Amino acid sequence: AEVRNYQAGDEVRHMEWRVTARTGRPHVKIYQEERERPVVILADFNPSMIFGTRVAFKSVVAARLAALLAWTAIKEGDRVGGIFFSAKEHNEFTPRGRDSGVLPLLASLCHYTNQSHEDRTAKPRLLSDVLTRIRRVVRPGSIVVLISDFYSMDIECEKQLSRLRGHNDVLAYHIQDQIEVIPPKPQQYAITDGQQEIILDTGLSSVRTAYEDYFQQRMSELQECFKRLQIQYVQVNAETPLPQLVRQTFPRRKRG
Questions:
Q1: What share of the chain is helix, strand, coil (3-state, %, to 5)?
Q2: Cβ–Cβ contacts within 10 Å for residue 149, how many?
Q3: What is the DSSP-derived secondary structure letter of residue 256?
């Protein structure tokens, strides 16, 4: 029989006394329902995600990816839950199996992709705050999926991710717009956040160089951070074939 470390709330009648005596630490038996891997999807819908220049907003890409991952987890026989958040709210879903796990997630994803444009001006919620919360509610041995553009990362994030990674499998999907990877053709562009407007002149070589350097440095820092943490890092944009991406990146069960 499979066993795991005792956790607060476990029933004494499920104790595995031989393993407890051998290791000196309390262990309990794992029953079939516990062998389902909990999959928790953390999806970021902060103001920076309400942006897109081709095909779809980043928030829509994130929602589509989250939905595909949720259905894939259920198909694999796992339970799926999530934490979705924006600048103004967040919702938590305890991992469940079958349709009862997926359908509430889908309804919430629809809600977040229908945020009003006024929400773009709200102060973003820090990713580290959400990671602190997820560490308290995720059971050890879970698969934790991060879907974000990671603009709300701060210095505390790496510490929180390291602790999360210590007891769980973690995947990071970096949602990008194409304009964040390749600067637009030389021209003057009016850019607004809903309150202020500036002119970006990519015809100036100094502007193009600064633009490219900023996004390249940011991408390199993210890649290095996740590499240090041994977290799988995947870049996604609106033109990425999501079904193929999920097949290639979502951890599959080993079949006996």
A1: 45, 20, 35
A2: 23
A3: -
DSSP sequence for 30-46: PPGGGGSPEEEEEEE--
Give residue 25's region: left, alpha or beta (phi > 0; psi -120 to 50). beta
First to last CA, the chain: 16
How far, in Å, CA of 109 to CA of 67, rounded?
A: 8
- As given in the structure block, the two tokens for residue 48 are 């920076």
- Taking CA atoms, 110 is separated from 62, 88, 185, 195, in Å, by 11, 16, 33, 26
**What pLDDT digit, counting tens, does each position of 19-59 carry?**
889 899 898 876 654 457 899 999 999 999 999 988 899 99
> Domains of the chain, with CATH numbers?
1-34 (no CATH), 36-179+210-249 (3.40.50.410)
**Which value, in Å, is the radius of gyration of the alpha carbons in the chain?**
21
The helix or strand, by DSSP H or E, that contains position 96, with its residue range, turns out to be strand 90-96
Residues 6 or more apart whose CB falls under 8 angstroms from that of 51 comprise 57, 58, 177
pLDDT at site 115: 79
pLDDT of residue 161: 97
Cα(114)–Cα(61) distance, rounded to whole angstroms?
13
Task: Give the residue from 141, 164, 133, 151 showing the smallest Cα distance to 229.
Answer: 164
Question: 3-class DSSP state for residue 170?
Answer: strand
Q: Which residues contact 189 (CB under 8 A, 6 or more apart)?
A: 199, 200, 201, 202
